[in-house]
Design brief:
It is built from five helices and eight strands, in the order H-E-E-E-E-E-E-E-E-H-H-H-H. The protein is α+β, with helices and mostly antiparallel strands. It is elongated, with a radius of gyration of 18 Å.
């Protein structure tokens, strides 16, 4: 799975390519195409994509109706910008968002488990999105010890509810630099 800096760069790239465009259609191309609270892609046609950002390791596509489309790339997900958009179904294709300007965003998954996902969510209250990731420091150290009890520290670092944006690669590097075992319990 891409780490936080890669997700930020990807959000900026997609925003530059399709922000302000109108969604022409959503094409679920795989079984795991859309995990959503609404039927797949229903009602997204005609909506304007206001901005593309990220929340932790999710891409967040903000629409004119206030709804958000979340894209999670999982372990081996990729996102392609197609100019002009294609009509084929590439290997590992999950979902394609086609825009009125002739551009499409294709979400693909190259792993066997097909966990990359796009989901459409209704407008939410600001409070649900207002919580920010914890900052490093003494408060972080104290909360790490009490947050998950005896869970492995490596597992705790990768938990996006505890601290956003750290995946396997960064967790491995951080623990190696700190001289800590990834198997040591977070309570220590």
């Amino acid at each position: 799975m891409p780490e936080l800096p890669q997700m930020q760069a990807l959000a900026e790239r997609v925003d530059a390519a399709v922000a302000g465009a109108i969604i022409a259609r959503v094409e679920p191309l795989g079984f795991s195409g859309l995990k959503t609270v609404l039927p797949p892609g229903e009602g997204l046609e005609g909506e304007t994509l206001l901005a593309v950002g990220r929340r932790g390791k999710y891409l967040v596509l903000t629409l004119s109706s206030g709804r958000r489309v979340l894209v999670h790339l999982s372990q081996a997900g990729r996102l392609d910008i197609e100019e002009p958009f294609k009509h084929t179904k590439p290997r590992g294709a999950v979902v394609r968002f086609v825009f009125g300007n002739g551009t499409a965003v294709l979400v693909r998954e190259h792993a066997n488990e097909r966990k990359a996902v796009g989901g459409c969510w209704p407008p939410v209250r600001k409070g649900l999105w207002a919580a920010s990731a914890r900052a490093a420091g003494e408060g972080f150290r104290g909360s790490a010890a009490h947050e998950r009890g005896h869970a492995a520290f490596h597992t705790l670092l990768r938990d996006q509810r505890f601290v956003a944006g750290i995946g396997r690669g960064y967790a491995d590097d951080a623990l190696n630099r700190a001289g800590l075992s990834p198997f040591s319990p977070s309570s220590r």
